[in-house]
Design goal:
By secondary structure, the chain is of the alpha+beta class. The protein has one domain: 2-Layer Sandwich (Beta-Lactamase), CATH 3.30.450. It is 50% helix and 20% strand. It contains 7 helices and 5 strands. Strands 2-1-5-4-3 form a 5-stranded antiparallel beta sheet, with helices on both faces. A hairpin with a 7-residue loop joins strand 1 and strand 2. The longest helix has 24 residues. It is elongated, with a radius of gyration of 28 Å. This is Synaptobrevin homolog YKT6. Keywords: Cell membrane, Coiled coil, Lipoprotein, Membrane, Methylation, Palmitate, Prenylation. It is a lipid-anchor.
């Protein structure tokens, strides 16, 4: 999973969009490709932002790229675009867009036309690095990954106990903590489980 570009744009209802702040990670491309790829990603960001209605979110796929767009609209006419590979999950992408638009709007409240101003927004570089791994950036995905890992460990533990069947039988026979009825129940249950084979 990879995040290639992140942009904040002003998208007027009529006219062309203006990139206010952007960051990119083109480390997976060769030196000779970086310029062309960067131009294409900027073009793609502007195009999808202009074609996304105000207050709407959408994802647009082009070749190996997916552009996730959130056009917040309102008085600021702000939109954000993150371009990722196709494997990148949708939820963290839109979470990133909402977060970065909130932070940008609070740092630079709308005072006329954004396009006439210059911005220093270093947080955009931090976010493009942080969201390279969506599991680290998105708490729900992180919890899900931890649950999946716990489930794998649990399955491994159960499998290792099942492989030690003879040792478990010896422990049951030698146990002083189990009554005679419990030992008999264990042996009966084991015999019944062994006699029936499902094919």
């Amino acid at each position: 999973m990879k995040v290639f570009a992140l942009s904040i744009l002003q998208v007027p209802s009529a006219g062309t969009s203006t990139v206010l702040s952007s960051a990119s990670d083109l480390s997976s491309f060769s030196f000779y490709q970086k310029g062309s790829v960067g131009e294409f990603l900027t073009f793609m960001s502007k195009t999808v932002a202009e074609r996304t209605p105000a207050t709407q979110r959408q994802s647009v796929q082009e070749n190996n790229y997916t552009a996730h767009v959130y056009n917040r609209g309102g008085a600021e006419q702000l939109a954000a675009v993150v371009i990722t590979d196709q494997e990148y999950p949708v939820r963290p992408a839109f979470s990133l867009l909402a977060k970065i638009l909130d932070e940008f709007a609070s740092k630079y409240p709308a005072k006329g036309d954004y396009a006439a101003q210059t911005f220093t927004f270093p947080d955009i570089n931090t976010y493009i690095q942080k969201y390279q791994d969506p599991r680290q950036a998105d708490t729900i995905m992180k919890v899900q990954a931890e649950l999946d890992e716990t489930k794998i460990i649990l399955h491994k533990t159960i499998e290792s106990v099942l492989q030690r069947g003879e040792k478990l039988d010896n422990l049951v026979d030698r146990s002083n903590a189990l009554s005679i009825q419990s030992k008999a129940f264990y042996k009966t249950a084991k015999k019944q489980n062994n006699c029936c084979v499902v094919m």
